[in-house]
Design goal:
The complex is a heterodimer of chains A (about 475) and B (about 40). By secondary structure, chain A is an all-alpha fold. Chain A has 22 helices and no strands. By secondary structure, chain B is mainly alpha-helical. The chains are: A mainly alpha (about 475), B mainly alpha (about 40).
């Protein structure tokens, strides 16, 4: 066990739980408080919250691990795609979904397309977000077992329940304010580590020379073109299709705040990836990547090499923060999908707000237990599992969502067919292993797009009320 | 009331794997500059 790092990690976990308890009373006041923090989050808090929600274990451990193993062009493909995710979401959906007043993605589908599309989308959210927690829990288990010196399965259970407690107690309020703290600790840890590496090497030129001396192929494009393009496409859509990220727009005070939060969130994310650039180079110069059982662990090796125990503990807490701040947002998306979109709207419309938030709380614990059971024997490496989730959401949600905002003629039958057709085709392609890993959305997403357009045009236009709603999404309300 | 498509298309269509700057493929540098382009247009 790493004693100093372990103590810092435990202090961090206790602090997160205290935040959850602090917001418990406020979160249980209403559904709006529990799922969207009363739609009152400001730009500063919102920027760190959206950054922390989108930057998960794969942004730090996964990107650095893949850069060390597959070369610098692969690392920058990762950054190039994921850093365009928030701007693209801002250009195409942020202001519009905030103006719609929806509480969740299925809620948006309900007001734009009606009940059947809402229920299908709620099922997709619950399935995808539950599976998305698996790579996060896997990463938490790896770090926890390393620092605390306990079994991987035990670490996964302890840390999984750890973030569920504060998320379930405090809802979006606790998740947003823990994200603010987690985003800061993540950024502080990565920038400090990068600065120490820079000072150690003296200049960027020396760093690149050392890395190329250790691994002459570090600067090369080492994989087929399709691997880079598939990765880029999966990540660039992530800000639009991931309910855990899109929900941050619902929590913003207004459309203007949602946009500014996304802009500053992007700026913080660039700093994180520039720090990761230095950490990747340091990882290569260690020359140990061939000896590691799991290449995602190279990040931890760099931390051990360059940081004293106290700073190392903060950096590892930052890694856990990256994991938890994304996983708690996934839990909230699952919880809203079950409690708000299915139970309140279709099973028991007269349910009180307290009973809906209680069901949301229970749903989170059920979801995390399912996630932990799968994560104890994970079905793939972290980056591949994240790729599956992104591909599934893009193939099902991506085009019905964007066309629902921008194209009046998109109707209920078109959206339902595109969503179901894309989802089913994606699952068939994964199960049959007909394509290279993570290349499935290159086929399934365009099929979803064609289905939405063709079926909408072949059937009657949506009612005028729904078409007027599209105008409203693009209308500035000036009080 | 999405420059992103044009710049991305240039990078992936050109794909200059045989041009190097400071030992690193130009592909990586084009993407590195792309990060700043994303923030500027945002």
């Amino acid at each position: 066990m790493q004693v100093t790092e372990g103590i810092i990690l435990l202090i961090y976990l206790v602090f997160m739980t205290i935040i959850g308890i602090y917001f418990y009373r406020r979160a249980r006041q209403s559904e709006s408080d529990y799922f969207t923090a009363g739609q009152s989050i400001n730009t500063f808090v919102g920027a760190f919250a959206i950054f922390a929600a989108i930057a998960s274990s794969s942004s730090l451990m996964g990107a650095v691990g893949s850069g060390v193993t597959l070369g610098l062009p692969y690392y920058f493909t990762y950054a190039f795609g994921v850093l365009a995710a928030l701007p693209l979401a801002m250009f195409l959906i942020s202001g519009q979904v905030r103006r719609s007043g929806a509480k969740s993605m299925p809620d948006f589908f309900h007001q734009r397309f009606g009940t059947s599309v809402q229920i299908l989308s709620a099922i997709i959210v619950v399935l995808a977000m539950t599976f998305y927690m698996v790579p996060q829990l896997t990463a938490a288990g790896i770090i926890g077992s390393y620092v605390l010196g306990i079994e991987y399965a035990t670490a996964t259970i302890i840390l999984g329940l750890g973030f569920t407690i504060y998320a379930a107690l405090g809802g979006m309020w606790a998740i947003t304010y823990t994200d603010l703290f987690q985003g800061m600790i993540m950024l502080f840890g990565a920038v400090t580590l990068a600065a120490i590496i820079w000072v150690d090497f003296g200049s960027i030129g020396n760093m690149l020379d050392s890395a190329l001396a250790t691994d002459p192929a570090f600067g090369d494009v080492t994989q087929p073109w399709m691997s880079y393009f598939g990765l880029f496409i999966a990540f660039i859509w992530f800000g639009i299709i991931s309910p855990s990220v899109v929900m941050r727009n619902f929590a913003s005070r207004d459309a203007r705040t949602a946009r500014r939060s996304s802009m500053w969130g992007t700026f913080i994310y660039i700093i994180l990836f520039l720090s990761g650039f230095f950490i990747t180079i340091a990882g290569v110069t260690l020359g140990i990547v061939g000896t590691l059982e799991n290449t995602d662990m190279i990040f931890v090796s760099v931390v051990e090499e360059y940081l004293p125990p106290i700073l190392g503990g903060i950096m590892l807490a930052g890694l856990l923060a990256a994991i938890m701040s994304s996983a708690d947002a996934m839990l909230l998306a699952i919880s809203a999908g079950i409690a708000h979109d299915v139970y309140k709207q279709h099973i028991n419309p007269n349910a009180t707000e307290r009973s809906v938030t209680l069901l949301g709380l229970i749903t989170m614990f059920v979801a995390v237990i399912i996630g932990i059971v799968i994560a104890i024997n994970p079905p793939g490496i972290i980056a591949v599992m994240v790729g599956w989730v992104g591909g599934f959401l893009l193939s099902s949600f991506g085009f019905p969502f964007v066309l629902g905002i921008w194209w009046k003629r998109a109707n209920k039958i078109g959206a339902f067919t595109g969503m179901l057709g894309g989802a089913v085709l994606f699952l068939i392609l994964v199960a049959s292993q007909a394509l290279p890993t993570n290349a499935e959305p290159i086929i399934a997403a365009p099929v979803s797009l064609i289905l939405v357009i063709v079926v909408s045009l072949m059937t009657s236009p949506p009612p005028k009320e729904q078409q007027d709603r599209v105008d409203m999404y693009h209308t500035h309300l000036d009080n | 009331d999405t420059i992103i498509i044009i710049y991305s298309t240039i990078v992936f269509a050109w794909w200059p794997t045989d041009i190097y700057m400071a030992g690193i493929s130009l592909v990586a540098w084009l993407m590195f500059f792309g990060l700043f382009l994303w923030f500027i247009i945002t």
